[in-house]
Anthocyanin synthase
Amino acid sequence: MVSEVVPTPSRVESLAKSGIQVIPKEYVRPQEELNGIGNIFEEEKKEEGPQVPTINLKEIDSEDKEIREKCHQELKRAAMEWGVMHLVNHGISDELIDHVKVAGGTFFDLPVEEKEKYANDQPSGNVQGYGSKLANNGCGQLEWEDYFFHCVFPEDKRDLAIWPKTPADYILATSEYAKQIRNLATKIFAVLSIGLGLEEGRLEKEVGGMEDLMLQMKINYYPKCPQPELALGVEAHTDVSALTFILHNMVPGLQLFYEGNWVTAKCVPNSIIMHIGDTVEILSNGKYKSILHRGVVNKEKVRISWAIFCEPPKEKIILKPLPETVNEAEPPRFPPRTFAQHMAHKLFKKDDQDSTAEQKAFKKDDQDVVAERKVLRDDKQDAAAEHKIFKKDDQDVVAEHKVLKDVPAEESK
């Protein structure tokens, strides 16, 4: 007699509610990934050891120069040492944040069958909508989460047809929150620019400005897990974005890899967690840090987080260290890539296939950046020569872009 094979539910929520006591092997992580996973509630209470910094933004725009610069220095230090921080007094009202959380939570409270009406189609490249992680890593493990993913800013790039219709105020609350996060991002970019000795608008311009910087929201839903010591909600990664802003439902789960150990982030009331992403790390030539982090799960409480990723345009900009961040003692640490190529590199290690072309472009870019640095230093003496050199660099960037053109783009979160 052949026993009936029961198919594994396609959504983690359905799997978690099925009453299983042992998770399917697809969700069991390799042993080396499980270091530092304990009782997340006990981990979050620990007072000893390093703690994710909390930055008070109340005086970020203070007219008092000394007070304003103190705030800026604290933010800059956190970006350099950690690359992640809790932002408090960020200017976004508790009322609006509560509306966003209630709206997202209400959507995930719907029956799975209702949520499936918004399902995305990852194999075809449609990642917006309701979904679950499909394995794209070598060992094929899955993550213990479902999610809803969609573009929230600029308004003309949104597709409201795929936004949840229930609850009725989801669109209104999420749209307003996205606008306010976009304004907050401008302030953060300004502080980070000044921290590099640049004009305050420089970093924002380099990542696309108001027109091209795209904000993508991913609501992560982590169901209760019967064996949390064996699973991960999100595997260890760094964010590809420029900045990431995160809300959560005050259930711990975020861990940061800091100084060789996994540190559990505390739940700080009325805060927004902010990550420095790979994009800013690259532009700053590593002065600002994109920290490795992961999401762990538990068997007692559902965890929900709302992440907004601030992303540069996929093809329009070549990401590389800014000339002002480079000198002979600190040569470029990152090869030039478009954002799409960087995502492909992170996801599929495309550099293994294209390493020869990339290294050639990287070496050439190193020479160009040093030249740019010299020109910027001497620009007051020789403006005509500077114009000529920058014109040549524009041509070089086009050539570099052409060399790297064949790496496929892939959207992932």
Remarks:
- Residues 1-7, 350-413 have pLDDT under 50 and may be disordered.
- The longest strand covers residues 214-222.
- Residues 338-393 form one domain.
